[in-house]
Amino acid sequence: MPPPHPALSPIANDGGEGKISIVILASGRGSNFAALLAAQQRGDLPIRIRALLSDKSAAPALDIARAAGIGAIALSPRNFSDRAAFDRALFARAAEFRPDLIVLAGYMRVIDAAVVNEWHGRMINIHPSLLPKYPGLHTHARAIEAGDGVHGASVHFVTAQLDGGPVIAQAQIPVLDGDTPDTLAARLLPLEHRLLAASVDAIARHRIALGTHGVECDGKPLVAPLCPQADGSLRAVG
Ligand code: GRF
């Protein structure tokens, strides 16, 4: 396992509050960020979102952060010589907030492998497909084109392999006759919000962690992705 980032403290070691500190990275709309923020504000999640960082200065997610009084930082890749330089700078800004966990919520850039490895076990991503199906872009169109009867979203720990890290949890929806990529995406989005919140909750409560051999749930290897339940928890199914 790569050495942890020097900024990392043990998860939930937040002055005895029992809350983990989170930094979110987003490139666009920010509805997943907004859902986490709303859950935090309702007191439903033991988290403190410290900052929202973006690679797009016009990202609406930044406005959501500003309106909530949360750190909102945009860095432009154009101002850096290459991907690694940009990623080092962006994650150095993230580290200033001493996050226990970094959440990629619609962050649309591939991250330099060395930077990813520094945050091993401390960074998750939400991806709109049932991984390992359809890593990368245009997931809804690819599911429709393939004739899939079921589609969904996954939350996974981030590794240097794009959308290839160990999966924590998945939410499924049926693909309906006449579905377009837009209708499928719209129907999936509320489930994504619940899936991400439930995954963050499980990490904050120490139920889920990345072990040497993959995801561990309650100290045991996870054999299949967990599913979000109506009460906001994650459960094994089948
Ligand atoms: C979501 O579909 C997420 O799964 C994907 O990008 C989209 C971001 O949406 N990675 P939003 O910015 O959170 O509204």
Essential attributes:
globular; three-stranded antiparallel sheet; seven-stranded mixed sheet; alpha/beta; 238 residues; Rossmann fold; binds 5-O-phosphono-beta-D-ribofuranosylamine
Strand adjacency order, main sheet: 3-2-1-4-5-6-7
Rg, Cα atoms, Å: 17 Å
**What is the terminal-to-terminal distance?**
31 Å
Low-pLDDT segments: 1-10
H and E string: EHEHEHEHEHEEHEEEEE
Number of helices: 6
Report the β-strand fraction as a percent range.
Answer: 15-25%
Mean of the pLDDT scores? 94
CATH architecture group name:
3-Layer(aba) Sandwich
Q: CATH class, anyone?
A: Alpha Beta
Helical amount: 25-40%
Shape: globular
Instruction: Tell me which ligands are bound.
Output: 5-O-phosphono-beta-D-ribofuranosylamine
The gist of it:
The protein has 238 residues and is an alpha/beta fold.
